[in-house]
Amino acid sequence: MKIPGTYVWGKGSHFWIHGCFEYNTDIYCEDTIKRFIKHYQYLVVQILEHKTDTIENIRILLPEERQVVLYDWNKTEAL
Fold first, then answer.
1. Whose CA is closest to 45, among 27, 60, 24?
2. For residue 72, how many C-alpha atoms fall within 13 Å in the half-sphere facing its CB?
3. Is the four-CA dihedral 48, 52, 54, 59 of positive or negative sign?
4. CA-to-CA distance for 43 and 58, rounded, in angstroms?
5. Are 33 and 21 in contact (CB under 8 A)?
6. Chain segment 29-64, per-residue pLDDT in tens
């Protein structure tokens, strides 16, 4: 998903990363942007925790989304 906007990131004190995200409210609702930011944060944590892994081993789905996609959507009953 390409989200047009302005992204400003910088390292803060105590190894925190601070960011600012501006977006067009005519196109995106606040919940969508919050979900995007949550995914971004999760991805950064995955990369930092698995820095020696190849990109194919980095998880991009949040744990609750992984549960839904891999298991809940797959629950089918035999006819």
1. 60
2. 7
3. negative
4. 8
5. yes
6. 999 888 888 888 888 888 888 888 888 888 888 989
> Does the predicted model carry a pTM greater than 0.85?
no
Give residues with Cβ within 8 angstroms of 38, minimum separation 6: 62
Residue ranges of alpha helices (H) inside the chain are 30-49, 63-67
**Token pair of 41 as six digits:** 């944060």
Q: What is the rounded CA–CA span in Å between residue 60 and residue 41?
A: 10
Average pLDDT rounded to a whole number, residues 8-29: 71
- What is the phi/psi pair of residue 36, to 5°? -60, -45
Which residues neighbour 8 within 8 Å (Cβ) at sequence distance 6 or greater? Answer: 19, 20
**Cβ–Cβ < 8 Å for 69, 61:** yes
